[in-house]
């Protein structure tokens, strides 16, 4: 059984499938990839979530060729591996992780998986929630209540203040972070 078969042996959206697939993809690339987005949120909250696997890091044509060699196919912005009616969809939306904390390392049966830190994930979700939509605010609030004790709130507030000072569109970011901190208690 190869690493991707190991991942697919777990239910869709499960934490084990997400982490094992992350470790398997990372093992094929030349630079470390960090799990971000909804899949990272699932890992940090422990709540399974069917989603694609967003990985961030340096990823080039040679890395893509390595994934294609093991059976992935390009489908728009995703690389998708399908085996026996099961799929793993991977997207690499950026080469740099937003944030400054070291990723969390999670050991899996096929190797380590790197996951964006709780504080950097909370910063990402809070930044998205500055759009004012109920959906992104609700998502950020749920995340804050689930992982609040793991978040470095003073550091996150400093990040929010710095970003708000540089970008007028993020003017309410510090107040939003404070609201999320209060909701996390």
Write a structural description.
The protein has 185 residues and is an alpha/beta fold. It contains eight helices and seven strands. The chain has helices at residues 3-8, 15-28, 37-45, 61-69, 118-129, 134-147, 153-166, 173-183, and strands spanning 34-36, 53-56, 73-75, 78-83, 86-94, 104-108, 111-115. A seven-stranded mixed β-sheet has the order 3-4-5-2-1-7-6. A hairpin with a 2-residue loop joins strand 3 (73-75) and strand 4. Helix 5 crosses helix 7, helix 5 packs across helix 8 (173-183) and helix 7 runs antiparallel to helix 8 (173-183). It is elongated and about 50 Å long. The relative contact order is 0.14. The mean pLDDT is 93.
Mean pLDDT: 93
The main pleated sheet reads as: 7 strands, mixed
Count of DSSP helices? 8
In percent terms, what proportion of residues is strand?
15-25%
The count of β-strands is: 7
Strands side by side in the biggest sheet: 3-4-5-2-1-7-6
Q: Report the uncertain regions.
A: none
Order of helices and strands: HHEHEHEEEEEHHHH
Shape: elongated
- End-to-end span in angstroms? 44 Å
Structural class by SSE content: alpha/beta
Radius of gyration from CA coordinates: 17 Å
Q: Share of helix among residues? A: 40-55%
Write a compact overview of the structure shown.
By secondary structure, this protein is α/β, with parallel strands linked by helices.
Please specify the SSE layout and strand pairing:
Elements: H1 3-8, H2 15-28, E1 34-36, H3 37-45, E2 53-56, H4 61-69, E3 73-75, E4 78-83, E5 86-94, E6 104-108, E7 111-115, H5 118-129, H6 134-147, H7 153-166, H8 173-183
Parallel strand pairs: 1-7, 2-5
Antiparallel strand pairs: 1-2, 3-4, 4-5, 6-7
Helix pairs in contact: 5-6, 5-7, 5-8, 7-8
